[in-house]
Design a protein that fits this description.
By secondary structure, this protein is an alpha/beta fold. It has 13 helices and 18 strands. The structure holds iron/sulfur cluster (SF4).
């Protein structure tokens, strides 16, 4: 049988789709590209925003409309957090929660035998162990994302993730070691450690986040260790010192801030103040001189006044982030914020998002311009377009350079000569 997987959402979902792919291939399925004809279509859903839910529904309906004889499987965060909404989609033949993904081959056989809809969405439990299949490869050529943590205990007032993902669970270090060795053996020189609340790693197992980073740092064949999104208050002085001791760790930190205004942070139930975040940024820049800081910022959260927004905007500029990921607040059913007063009209959210994005573009341009004249080491990853290769530095500067030599998978010195058209700088390969 042929199967195709549509993945919505974050790197953790992409990792789980890869694990599903390898599981199906072990069971004799051929996994084809999503736009190809298949007997089974799997939609690995996201529910972080209302738009994500809408995209999930559209994809499920489209799969069945275009392939009426196929089996459509709906899994992922939308199915887990809102099983009733998932069941309301008649086009979904099989509905799977996260804890049932490993049973997919058996449930496909059950559906084929009895032709009856299959729904398996067991709720997450408090003492649930870390489960899920492992990966040996990833759909990128140079960098492999490896999930080490699942779940979140935070319940930020706007966020539906803890309801979809359950409590913090950490991958045992022995299993992580085996998985990292497997991807290194497949030629991946860079690994990205990811999770739902990555820096909460070990809260359930007595291990610590630095334990996992040190382990990745020790694997032969892996030259770069990159980190997914981090929570500010998990990055204590001791954690920063431990991370600074990992020589393969990339100096690129994506630390979710959400707002630069303390009144808004309080209503979001975030566990730090703007001043504490600023102090953290200073400590990281001291410990990792060339590091870059990027962040998530939400605009238009309920009760955010014009002054609150202006304060947040000024704060983002004062930190001098190298990139901003901007999200207009999206009301999620069942979250505390959904019941808070002061929800703002879409027009206001869109205006604030446009201004924050404009600032983000200016900060990005400043970062790129500051790199001109520098010589940087770039790990080239994608196949060339018209002889132009693209790659990233350790601090995640995207660089394009022309070469007649195959640069894929190679780490090369490049002199930055200018800002590129797209989201990158351009440079010339330095003679070794
Ligand atoms: S830390 Fe907050 S925003 Fe992040 S997943 Fe947990 S509840 Fe959601």
């Amino acid at each position: 049988m042929n199967a195709a997987i549509y993945t919505l959402g974050c790197k953790v979902n992409q990792y789980e789709s890869q694990a599903l792919r390898e599981l199906l291939e072990r069971e004799g399925f051929s996994v084809v590209a999503p736009d190809e004809d298949a007997d089974v279509y799997i939609v690995n859903s996201c529910t972080v925003t209302a738009v994500a839910d809408q995209k999930t529904r559209q994809r499920v309906r489209r799969c069945k409309r275009e392939h009426p004889d196929s089996i459509v499987v709906l899994t992922g965060c939308m199915a887990q957090a809102f099983p009733k909404d998932a069941e309301a989609l008649p086009e979904a033949d099989i509905i799977l929660g996260h804890r049932s993904q490993a049973q997919l081959p058996a449930l496909l056989a059950e559906y084929q035998k009895f032709g009856k809809r299959v729904v398996r969405v067991p709720a997450h439990e408090s003492k649930e162990p870390f489960t899920g299949a492992r990966i040996t490869t990833f759909d990128e050529r140079t960098r492999a994302c490896v999930k080490i943590e699942d779940g979140c205990n935070r319940f930020c007032s706007y966020c539906v993730i803890p309801y979809a993902r359950g409590r913090v669970r950490s991958k045992p270090l022995e299993e992580l070691k085996a998985e990292l060795e497997a991807v290194a053996a497949k030629g991946y020189r860079e690994v990205v450690l990811i999770g739902i609340n990555l820096s909460a790693y070990g809260q359930d197992s007595g291990k610590t986040f630095p334990d996992a980073v040190r382990l990745a740092n020790s694997i032969d064949g892996i030259d770069r260790v990159r980190l997914g999104s981090l929570e500010p208050d998990h990055l204590t002085d001791a954690v920063i010192d431990a991370l600074a001791g990992c020589e393969k760790l990339c100096g690129q930190f994506h630390i979710s801030l959400q707002s630069g205004c303390d009144r808004t942070l309080k209503r979001m139930n975030r566990r730090y103040t703007a001043a504490e975040y600023r102090a953290l940024a200073q400590k990281l820049r001291a410990a990792f001189p060339d590091c870059t800081l990027t962040t998530d910022v939400m605009v238009g959260f309920c009760g955010e006044t014009d002054d609150d927004f202006e304060e947040s905007l000024r704060f983002m500029e004062s930190i001098g982030f190298e990139k901003l990921h901007v999200f207009p607040y999206s009301v999620r059913e069942g979250t505390k914020a959904a019941a808070l007063p002061g929800h703002l009209p879409k027009r206001v959210k869109d205006e604030r998002a446009a201004r924050m994005l404009q600032l983000g573009d200016e900060l990005r341009k400043r970062f790129f311009t500051s790199q001109i004249g520098q010589t940087v080491r770039v790990l080239f990853e994608s196949a060339p377009k018209e002889g132009v290769y693209t790659g990233y530095t350790a601090n995640y500067l995207p660089v394009q350079a022309k070469s007649d030599e195959d640069l894929c998978g190679k780490e090369i010195a490049v002199r930055v000569t200018g800002v590129g058209n797209g989201d990158c700088v351009i440079g010339t390969v330095c003679e070794n």
